[in-house]
Amino acid sequence: MSTQTSDLNTSCAAPVVGVIMGSSSDWDIMKNAVAMLESFGVPFEARVISAHRMPQDMAEYGAVARSRGLRAIIAGAGGAAHLPGMMAALTEVPVFGVPVPSKYLRGEDSLLSIVQMPKGVPVATFAIGEAGAANAALHAVATIATTDDALHAKLVAFRAAQTEAARNMTLPA
Ligand code: RP5
Q1: N or C: which end of the chain has fewer CB within 10 A?
Q2: Which residue positions in the chain have pLDDT lower than 70?
Q3: CB of 78 sitting under 6 A from ligand 1
């Protein structure tokens, strides 16, 4: 286990998904990614790594991400949200970016900062906020499920339950 940053949460098995965020203030959004990974039983770690306040820690995390066994990195940040893009520059592990809502620009700044990557360094960018965090986790699950039949079966079951729930939706009288 790396000692470079404080852990917000770490599952027992060796993590295959890294959930990183620029500040503990991002947790209310990013906990939705963690909850989704937990529901699928995907081993993960969750840490604060600030691109601006902890640049050397960020570089170290990216340098060893693949050798540590990470298969996806979910990176959330708000405002001048450089963490996902910089992490994508530091590792070949796929980076899924989550724009965190910001105080003054409601996360539109975060979204544009994360999505407008230069050609050659991609960040798969998700919706602003809770749905984006949950979907980033689902995308990580789907990515890993391409080579994991048991996880694929869980994803199929999740989709089926979701479909059933939608079919059973009722409208107010
Ligand atoms: C970004 O700045 C973080 O991702 C966070 O969304 C934002 C504000 O951080 P704090 O001032 O709340 O620590 O780097």
Answers
A1: C
A2: 1-12
A3: yes
